[in-house]
Write a structure and sequence with these properties.
Elements: H1 2-11, H2 23-30, E1 37-43, E2 46-52, E3 60-66, E4 86-88, E5 91-93, H3 97-117, E6 124-130, H4 143-151, E7 158-161, E8 173-174, E9 177-178, E10 180-189, E11 193-194, H5 204-217, E12 231-239, E13 246-247, E14 250-259, H6 265-277, E15 282-291, E16 294-295, H7 300-313, E17 318-319, H8 328-331, E18 337-340, E19 354-356, H9 357-377
Helix pairs in contact: 1-3, 3-9, 7-9
The protein binds zinc ion.
């Protein structure tokens, strides 16, 4: 099976973000002699591979993927080495099998089959890959590349992202939007002193306690049909001088909002600061907006993908916009219709990450259907 062979070749490569380490070469050799033009645009530490037929007068359909993977964690906990693709019990094991080298392999295999049947598609077929989806922002994201496209008036009409969206069966869940992500680091200033002299100190740990209870019980918004309510989580709190008889003078707390479009970064900042101010202590907050929420509101591409899934699996997928953020957030400003559909996400980022072999074949069939339907409707 072509998709399994391609997935194995990709998994073999240690492409921990922001390294591509040769995955692009595998992709290019799989798609050579198919009239594609290959371009690579790199900046900071991110590499971007653009594969297209360059017919931008037609509607553009783009498959978006990332070749980087997250670190393996302790290798001794893996049943087989993470970068040695291994088949056991009809499953393919290896780092990136589900997130997202399996999805990439299925799409490439589908593209090859599709182009064998349709030599000249009625649309501009494009594949876009980058090497830093999972990695740090400072290594670069595809936003700059997307700005270059917009400047050249090259727009993506339909964007299919092969991220692992499925839950129990491949194709049972797809995403058409994602929540936003807003992080902050709070520095909370009290007054240091001896624990035996409480009237001479202001313990920031005690002062923050009331704020935390308010922050964690607050209803930031109620969500809507497309999004869960905004959630607030604290990821770290640190204070203390190391001595048991000293009240610390400072406390640091890092936190994150996953927010629906019913809240804005401004509204969340304002409400958060109001609660912290009520403590009466001085504070500073270093905010970072990681992602704005996005949502595909047009139905054309969503319906097309749903019908494609149904024609292969017999069931229509459910739309669920949960999970973390994705590269879809960078594509959204183009006004593209975005759908995320890929393998099951049960083992992603875990030890013994895997995909079912059958899952890759089903996914290839779904992706091919999508290409055929886009061709027929353009
Ligand atoms: Zn991913």
């Amino acid at each position: 099976m072509d998709e399994i062979q391609i997935a194995k070749k990709l998994i073999e490569i240690e492409s921990i973000s922001p390294e591509d380490n040769g995955c692009f070469d595998v992709i290019k050799s799989e798609l050579k002699d198919l009239k594609f033009k290959f371009e690579q645009i790199d900046y900071l530490n991110i590499k971007n591979l653009i594969i297209h037929r360059e017919s931008y007068q037609k509607k553009t359909f783009c498959f978006l993927g990332h070749t980087d993977v997250v670190p393996t964690g302790p290798e001794e906990l893996w049943s087989s080495p993470p970068f040695k693709p291994t088949i056991r019990n009809e499953k393919l094991f290896g780092r990136g099998a589900a997130d997202m080298k399996g999805g990439i392999a299925s799409f490439i295999a589908a593209t090859k089959e599709f182009l064998k049947e349709v030599d000249e598609p009625n649309f501009n077929l494009m594949l876009l890959f980058n090497s830093n989806e999972e990695g740090k922002m400072e290594n670069g994201k595809i936003d700059k590349l997307i700005s270059m496209f917009i400047d050249k008036k090259k727009f993506i009409d339909y964007c299919l992202i092969g991220e692992p969206s499925s839950l129990k069966q491949v194709g049972d869940i797809m995403r058409v939007g994602r929540r936003g992500s807003l992080s902050g680091e709070l520095t909370f200033y009290g007054k240091q002193g001896h624990v035996a002299y409480p009237h001479q100190v202001k313990n920031p740990i005690h002062f923050i306690a009331g704020c935390i209870s308010e922050l964690t019980s607050k209803n930031w918004d109620s969500g809507n049909d497309n999004f869960d309510p905004t959630s607030f989580q604290i990821s770290n709190i640190s204070a203390g001088t190391g001595a048991s008889n000293v009240v610390p003078g400072q406390l640091k707390m890092t936190f994150n909002f996953r927010f629906s479009p019913l809240s804005t970064p401004e509204s969340l900042k304002l409400e958060f600061e109001k609660i912290i101010s009520s403590s009466g202590l001085k504070f500073e907050i270093d905010w970072s907006l990681n992602a704005l929420p996005f949502l595909t509101e047009e139905n054309f591409f969503i319906d097309l993908v749903m019908q494609s899934v149904q024609s292969v699996t017999g069931k229509k997928p459910i739309i669920d916009n949960g999970g973390g953020t994705s590269d879809g957030r960078w594509i959204a400003p183009m006004g593209s219709e975005i759908v995320e559909l890929g393998p099951k996400n049960k083992t992603i980022h875990q030890v013994d990450e895997c995909v079912d072999l059958e899952e890759l074949a089903t996914l290839k069939a779904i992706y091919k259907q999508i290409l055929l339907k886009v061709h027929q409707s353009c």
